[in-house]
Design brief:
mainly alpha; 15 helices; MetI-like fold; 1% strand; 2 domains
Length: 341
């Protein structure tokens, strides 16, 4: 196991270099003058773009420019992001906790309800429970996420006024940036509890409801389908029939024996979906004006923020490699028969 983990971790830098180098090549399609304009902070500098080009070496060979950027990354310097008006590393540190909060809440809902509905659907095959689960699954999977998000926003914010977009209200913003509120972890939900401020906690949680439900519907639908198929396959195997013949209770047969094996494909799906969420759910964060890492990635792309795009891509590549490694390790915890070699 240790050798396997070390091998996978050694591949991490190669993956990140490959991803960022391909994106760096794409940015070279922009002229040096256009790329130089991204570093301009004063309108008076627009008449001296050649000086900016010389200062940042924008006419140097691609490998030299990429090597310069990569050398900065190794020193912890990801560059400056004009779209966020701050260093890229600071932008990621500021925006990522909000996305982690959203991803964790979403996945808790998805895994709990998805596994329960999927297993129940398989156990009650072709009965009303199965029909209902399949109807919800197909409906949720077919409904575009941007349509669902806009509908929820229109009903629960526009009509009912229950939940507002954004990360938190203006009143909470004043409290969070005040002297009496201490930031311990960067996660507002946790920091609100540590500060003993229930009002801030409930406000932040209420702003998470609509984006979390929107993300949950699509992921939940896929989770139900995978869990149902996996459970049906396990229930038709010999060891299940043998367990029933021994007189074991149906609950033990279904959830202790068949369920434990059926959950393995769900682990793969859940880990991939969770990492995708951590990488930033661009559409949902844009619809609800949620201050997450996905919205930062969108702003960086819209404003041709090369440093922001590369930093965002570097983070996503690292998360995907580490997420896949974590799912492989979880395999062995769930099913000891699986060995990583």
């Amino acid at each position: 196991m240790l050798r396997y983990i070390i091998r996978r971790l050694l591949l991490l830098p190669l993956v990140m270099v490959g991803v960022t180098f391909l994106l760096f090549l794409l940015t070279q399609r922009l002229s040096p003058e256009m790329r130089a304009s991204l570093y301009v902070k004063d309108a008076r500098q627009m008449g001296a773009l050649e000086e900016v080009i010389e200062e940042y070496g924008l006419r140097d060979p691609v490998l030299k420019q990429y090597g310069r950027w990569l050398g900065g990354v190794l020193k912890g310097d990801l560059g400056y992001s004009p779209s966020a008006n701050m260093p890229v590393a600071k932008a990621i540190k500021e925006y990522l906790p909000a996305t982690i909060q959203l991803a964790v809440i979403t996945m808790l809902l998805v895994v709990f309800f998805g596994v329960w509905f999927g297993a129940s659907s398989a156990v009650h095959k072709d009965k009303w429970q199965d029909i209902l689960a399949r109807f919800i699954s197909v409906g949720g999977f077919s409904l575009p996420i941007f349509v669902l998000g806009l509908l929820l926003l229109m009903v629960f914010y526009g009509k009912l006024g229950w939940f507002a977009p954004g990360g938190y209200s203006f009143q909470t913003d004043l409290v969070v940036h005040g002297h009496s509120f201490h930031t311990y972890t960067g996660f507002l939900l946790i920091d609100a509890l540590l500060n003993g401020n229930l009002r801030v906690f409930l406000d932040v949680l209420s702003h998470l409801v609509l984006p979390a439900v929107t993300l949950c519907i699509g992921s939940f639908a896929l989770m139900v389908r995978v869990m149902r198929s996996s459970m049906l396959e396990e229930l038709n195997k010999e060891y299940v029939r043998a367990a029933r013949a021994k007189g074991l209770s149906e609950w033990v047969v279904v959830y202790k024996h068949a369920g434990k094996n059926a959950i393995i494909p769900v682990i793969t799906l859940a880990s991939i979906q969770f990492i995708r969420l951590l990488g930033g759910t661009v559409i949902v964060e844009t619809i609800f004006d949620y201050p997450g890492i996905g919205r930062f990635g969108v702003l960086a792309a819209q404003q041709l923020d090369i440093a922001g795009i590369l930093g965002f891509s570097l983070m996503v590549a690292a998360l995907f490699v580490l997420g896949n490694l974590l799912s492989d390790i979880l395999y062995t915890a769930v099913d000891p028969r699986i060995r990583l070699e």
